[in-house]
Amino acid sequence: MRHIVILGAGFAGLSALHTLEQATLTRRKLKITLVSNSTHFLFTPLLPNVANSELSLKSITFPLKDHIDPSTELIIEQITGLDLKHNQLLTSSQPIPYDYLLLAPGSETDWKDHEHWKDLCYTCKSAEDAVLIREHIEHTFAKAAQLPKNERQSLLTFAFAGAGPTGVELLAEIYAGLARDVFSKASPDLVQQTRFLLIDPQDQILTNLPTELQKFAHDHLSNTPGISILTNTSVTERTEHEITLSSGETILCDHLFWCAGVKPSSLLQNSNLELDASGRVMTDSTLQALGCENVFVAGDCAAPPEAPAPNAQAAKQQGPVAAQNIIAALSGRAPKTFSFQHLGDMLTLGRGRAAIKVMGVPLQGRVAYAMYRAAYASLMPGAMNKMHILTEWFEHDLATARIMSLPNLPMANLPTTEPADKDTVEE
Ligand SMILES: Cc1cc2nc3c(=O)[nH]c(=O)nc-3n(C[C@H](O)[C@H](O)[C@H](O)COP(=O)(O)OP(=O)(O)OC[C@H]3O[C@@H](n4cnc5c(N)ncnc54)[C@H](O)[C@@H]3O)c2cc1C
Question: Could you tell me where in the chain the CATH 3.50.50.100 domains are found?
């Protein structure tokens, strides 16, 4: 019996698994093992919605064991290395042998030259990150409300390094949650002191997205009180309560969200696989790793010729092709060539605002938002997960679900030194 091991249970790994499982129903001569360091699948595009408490983790994660065929072996293990010479994955205990490997471990935060900032920044890459951000924001406002005005500027300054989709959506969703559930209850001077900074070294935001989406996001954010967009700027220094910008300016800031990019899994380093300049595994057009007949690669860490930018769409399309080509190799058939089908772009800015471009047609506003939600609910695997997410959105719209909860805020004791300025708070 031939043993196929899939490393990674994200968009690429899971879609590959489902293709292989369907194939094994007719060809029972395969053993399939799925290896992941997490027990759950995570729908990353909706992490910002968890960070602002619009959705619970339950809506964007599901246990792997519920979505795999009983004949598939599931191993929850941190893979520590790839031993391609002996066809095995290394762990802290027993190695995992394979005949064919489908490599899909995704990517990790790229700290560039700032690895030492890790403990001074927030990231939004995992379920834990999103929950940490949510709790942190709630604590911040509870704490700020107890401090005198002149001592809380750093606590109320939120900087986002990186104006790609993650930075923009995270900022917009956090702001939307605060505007709705915190600003309306907080004292006006606390609201006026709250600053959001979107910082990017490029001359515009969302450079990977169509210009219509860039413009919509830029106009919306720059017209929102409290939000500043700083392009052609990077963060050069970080201390616990300050950031320094490339302009030389130092800003009091307790919260730096590092959204400045991802890089392929560090597992690939020292693996003897051929990597491109960004660290992705170079493959041929069939997703077979160059020089390794029994290794196929999919998702964020694959670099086929004319590689698309790493994203969930590409990962979901590559997984099945890599799986089919393993079956083809086993049965002596000709492999399929991967070609990326760009299905469109979507961007949400919270509270009913989205911009999308599908089949070349740009749309924004409520209709775009409804389409955005419909698309993400349909992409979510499993009927129960679709139900969960739609129910939570429905509750959220009806305002029966509280977004940010601020228990026992001592608002009544606060000196409200400045008059309420309704223009600073979006309703
Ligand atoms: C906040 C955020 C928002 C995003 N929004 C969008 C969006 O709107 N649209 C879009 O197209 N893309 C989006 N992306 C990008 C998208 O999430 C990735 O491109 C996609 O997840 C890549 O799929 P993958 O299968 O390659 O990797 P992943 O989905 O990251 O899966 C990797 C898997 O490998 C496992 N793994 C990793 N290392 C090991 C190890 N050493 N041992 C064992 N298991 C391991 C992980 O646990 C995981 O199961 C977003 C990403 C983030 C973080």
Answer: 115-260+351-424
**Predicted model pTM:** 0.91
119-148: b or e for each residue (b if 16 or more CB lie within 10 Å)?
A: ebbbbbbebebbbebbeebbebbbebbeee
Alpha-carbon gap, residue 137 to 408, rounded angstroms: 15
The preferred substitution site among 36, 60, 101 for testing ligand 1, maximizing ligand atoms within 8 Å of CB, is 36
CA of 301, closest atom in ligand 1: 26
Residues near 405 by beta carbon (within 8 Å), at least 6 away in sequence: 53, 138, 181
CATH code for the part of the protein at 2-37+77-109+262-331: 3.50.50.60
Tens-digit pLDDT string for the chain (427 aa): 899 999 999 999 999 999 999 986 555 689 999 999 999 999 999 999 999 988 999 889 999 999 999 999 999 999 999 999 999 999 999 999 999 999 999 999 999 999 999 999 999 999 999 999 999 998 999 999 999 999 999 999 999 999 999 999 999 999 999 998 889 888 999 999 999 999 999 999 999 999 999 999 999 999 999 999 999 999 999 999 999 999 999 999 999 999 999 999 999 998 999 999 999 999 999 999 999 999 999 999 999 998 888 999 999 999 999 999 999 999 999 999 999 999 999 999 987 889 999 989 999 988 899 999 999 998 887 888 888 899 998 888 876 445 455 444 333 333 333 333 333 333 2
CATH number belonging to the domain at 115-260+351-424, selected among 2.130.10.10, 3.50.50.100, 3.40.50.2300, 3.30.590.20: 3.50.50.100
Residue of the nearest CA to atom 53 in ligand 1?
125
